[in-house]
Every structure is written in structure tokens, then in C-alpha cells.
């Protein structure tokens, strides 16, 4: 049964490879959000950035169950998502980072896209400063699937996250970048942990 309640939200996020690709060129939309069950209660606070309140019901329309096995799984899912963004914040802010720490939280396309974005940033001799803000909720948890799966829908605001020259710190923002959009992360349970294997942005969906 679906329940509405407090939303599980990581309080702050960092920078991501797919987001970086968006910033390096004009964004095109991709992906679609899905929902099965919903989930919520407060996540641990992370200092730095306040979460966004989605506008007009364009994202995060509901949440999955907050109790039982699904509730426990969803809390772990959001913790993974939060840690993934924090790892990206560090990687994209460091001109010498190889992004190896991202393997702890992601795999597949999510990992490869992020590493591509990091390499593009290094090749352009740029780093990211600041951090985006988010408003993420778990919209699906399937503990009967093999492997188990979960989906997070997020409203990302990158208006305070900037591309700068690694040496001079001069701004190097692309023309026509999208500052706020809906994104969807898909996760799987693998070797006793949740991993993000896909991350899609929908630049044409405001939030």
C-alpha cells in the first residue's frame, strides 16, 4: 500500500559525470522516471547545501513505504545516492582525481558516464566549484526482483555549481546550460550493497 509522509532526502549533493556532460554542452533530454512503491522519513543531515522544494508537482509526487523491509532498504538506497554525490563532489573538484572512489557506489553506465565526464573535465583543464542542490526521494523498491532494484527521482539545481579554469579559477560556463531539471537514478543490490547503475536526466522537465 502506498503511503505519503516525510520524504527521505539527502541534504546536499555534489557533482556528477552525466551532469558534467550537460554543462560542457547544451543539454538534451533523456530518460524517464518510474514508480512502483514509495518511501520516506528523514535522512542523515549533510552540511553544505539545502534541498530544493520541487515546483508544481513536477517531481517527487509521492514516496514509498516508510516501514518494514522496503523502508529499511530505501534508507540504504538514499544513503548510497548521497555518498555517490559526495564522492563526485570530491572527484570533480580535484584536477588530479582518477575517480576511483566512485566504484564504491556505482557501476555500469552510471560509473562509465561519470568517468567520461571527469576525463573531459581534466582534458579541458577545468574543475567544478560549489555544489548542486537536490530533492531526492525513493520512488520504487522491489525486494522480490533478482537482483533487488530501486529507483530514485531527484530535482537537481546546478545554479551554484560552476565550471572553472583549474589554474586561474576563472569561470568557464557553457552557453545555454540548464540549471534545474529532473533526474532518475536506478540501483541494484550487488554483493551485499546497493549500486547505482544508471542515471538519467530530463532537461525538459522543470522542477
Describe this structure in words.
The chain has 207 residues and is of the alpha+beta class. The chain has one domain: Nuclear Transport Factor 2, Chain: A, CATH 3.10.450. Helix content is 24%, strand content 22%. It is built from 3 helices and 6 strands, in the order H-H-H-E-E-E-E-E-E. Helix 1 packs across helix 3 (108-123). The relative contact order is 0.26. The model is unreliable at 1-61 (pLDDT under 50).
Give the uncertain stretches in residue-range form: 1-61
Q: Identify the CATH architecture.
A: Roll
Terminal residue distance: 26 Å
Described by its quaternary structure, the protein is: single chain
Q: Helices and strands: which structural class?
A: alpha+beta
| Overall domain count | 1
CATH topology: Nuclear Transport Factor 2, Chain: A
Portion of residues within helices = 10-25%
Average pLDDT figure: 75
Number of helices: 3
Give the helices and strands as they follow along the chain. Answer: HHHEEEEEE
